[in-house]
Design brief:
Radius of gyration of chain A: 24 Å
Strand content of chain B: under 5%
Shape of chain A: elongated
Number of domains of chain A: 2
CATH superfamily of the largest domain in chain A: Response regulator
Oligomer: heterodimer
Largest sheet of chain B: 2 strands, antiparallel
Shape of chain B: globular
CATH class of the largest domain in chain A: Alpha Beta
CATH topology of chain B: ABC transporter involved in vitamin B12 uptake, BtuC
Strand content of chain A: 15-25%
Structural class of chain A: alpha/beta
Number of helices of chain A: 11
Order of helices and strands of chain A: HEHEHEHEEHEHEHEHEHEHEEH
Number of domains of chain B: 1
CATH architecture of chain B: Orthogonal Bundle
Number of helices of chain B: 15
Number of strands of chain A: 12
Strand order of the largest sheet of chain B: 1-2
Distance between the termini of chain A: 74 Å
Helix content of chain B: 55-70%
Chain lengths: ~350, ~375
Amino acid sequence: MKAMRYLALTPIAALALAGCGGSTGNSNTSGSSSAASGDCSKPDVFCVGLVTDTGKIDDKSFNQSAWEGVEAGGKATGAQVKDIETVSTNDYATNIKQFTDKKYDVIVTVGFLMADATVKAAAQYPDTKFIGVDQFIDTSKVKSPNLTGLSFNEDQAGYAAGYLAGLMTKTNKIGDVLGQEIPPVQKYDKGYKAGALAANPKVKVTSVYHPAGDNAFQDPVWGAGEAKKQLAQGVDIVFGAGGSTGNGAIQETAKASGAGKTVFCIGVDVDQWDSVPAAQPCLITSAEKHLSQGVTDLIKQAKDGSIKGGNFIGTAGVSPYHAFDSSVPADVKTKVADVVAKLANGSLKTGVTL
Amino acid sequence: MPDKDVAPPPATPAAAPAVLERGAPPTPGGLWGALIRYQAIVVPVVGLVVAFVVGALLIRQQGVNPTYAYKTLFQSALFTRDGLNQTLQRTTPLIFTGLAVAVPLRVGLFNIGAQGQFIFGALAAAVVGYKLHSAPGIVIILVALLCGLLAGAMWASIAGFLKTSRGVHEVISTIMLNSIAVNIIDYLINNPFKEKGQAIPRTPQIAPQAFLNDMGIVPIGFPIAVILAVGTAWMLRRTTLGFQFETVGRNKAAAGYAGIKINKMILLAMALAGAFAGLAGGIETLGDIHRYESGFNANLGFDGITIALLARSNPVATIPAAFLVGALRAGASALQFDTGIQPEVVDMLLAITLLFVSLPLVAKLIFRRYAAKGSALTSGWGS
């Protein structure tokens, strides 16, 4: 009985202590975001908020790339920036609302899963600009002029990666291990093939899609198995495009004999040097969507008022070579850089149609 | 009362078994007696207080005033119009999934499968909701909810059937059925029920006339959940079926000797649990998400376990337990925005509370014959 009372009282006392002692910690603007807290409803205070897809802001993938874009855009425009991390998909709307409540001028939402919530919010708050990262807007249905979807031509990233692979292969056999057979993945695949053939007409590309729909992007074991098969057939460059499935393929390639010398792998979407360190032994580059750049560009446009609703297509290319910078011949680098530049300015077409 | 096992002062442990050993103990008077009598409330409250203290220390560690953090959390969850709406929105399915775990617990079954039953219900309602798109709203709503309920009940009945026919422990079978449900549903939303021309595997949106809208700030599902929770409590306490449930839960041998058909009770309890979870899925689909999209219902079924244990398998108590969880989750967003505290702190608070609430439960499982009467929990373990 006394014990119960002690048990009940101790925490209450501790709570009081913690509460009283905490009077110095009045840090209502701390956290991962850095900016001082101005009043975003004032016209001269430009505020940019970012809502992550489920996951952390430092996920070394889309969330982080988008956040880096927001930070750069914020610096360029003198904006106050802040992020909120989403824990559950149920929180998308609530998290967007935190920013609209505070009258943020621009809200960046990350990932195609948030597309619906973003469309709804854009209709509800017409005075706020919304940037949907990796969200393709169906302009026949969604007319909000304050909503811009940032998407990428995967075929261009695939083309650049394939071009590099075509120049680098010694066996004239390259491969790709893919996730589900859906448009973005097909674009990577076809771009990769087109790029490889453009660089090296003798090249043979072995490609394989994950057969099942349910876990097509979460099956690293299958991805590793397919990579192994391709390597056994003499493929010396493996491009993994399909979430964890593709990561499984490049990680397996990293374990192969000759990895980093005669056998290479190529990552996808972001610079996977950081996001999949296990693939570093073979990771020559990644077919990269320039997400940060796209976000930064759109924030600048939002600031100067030139931003348009609808879709904004960001640029795509290949990531830095990192440790393989010296293994890639200078003329190859030049040619690849040239291809990336031409793709960006539109003078070179990948020729990919679905 | 087993709580004293966790209390540091050594004065009492000798006293308690002495009281309890005599079977039905004469309740001691005074504060201790009151605490014993209201242990079902005391234990969760103490757990909650401890959790908030630990949480306060961790928040303070991050340089934020805990009082300010908690104030932000609850103010945004309870004292703003949208916040309260969000809280109720989140509370509603949790009451149902709480019941889906609490009711089988009374029969001595631990239903870990509320998540699988829930998503089956959600999918069934979504499919009805878009297939019947030209029917009047009320028809779609009723058919969708009924199908959700039946889908959940059928899925749970598999575990009930395995238990009664082959003696498969329901914890094992329901855990496995959760994974099977996820994969079957992934197949279905990728193939027959997939929205055309959409890269994301999900069903089309349900017909707009079938949306369950909010009445003011109260989601329509909320009063339904409350009524069902109260009705379940009444059923357990006042009906023959409820009596049979409780008897099986407390002593299977005695129940069998008294002529209660144990297998029938097990099947019924599981089906009822699945019906609750499936109905929750249906209401969530019609009221909030308006389609089936994987990931959007994550964890509501698993949260039901938390709720049922917090409520100590009392159906009415699932309401405040679900409200607490709903409020914490609704307020987490503002907490993060205003203080920079990671929203996971909410999960931690719940986990610590649950740990405390479960400690006596563990003790009860060990000292079964000393356990306080009136709280049949998991007598199904080991049988």
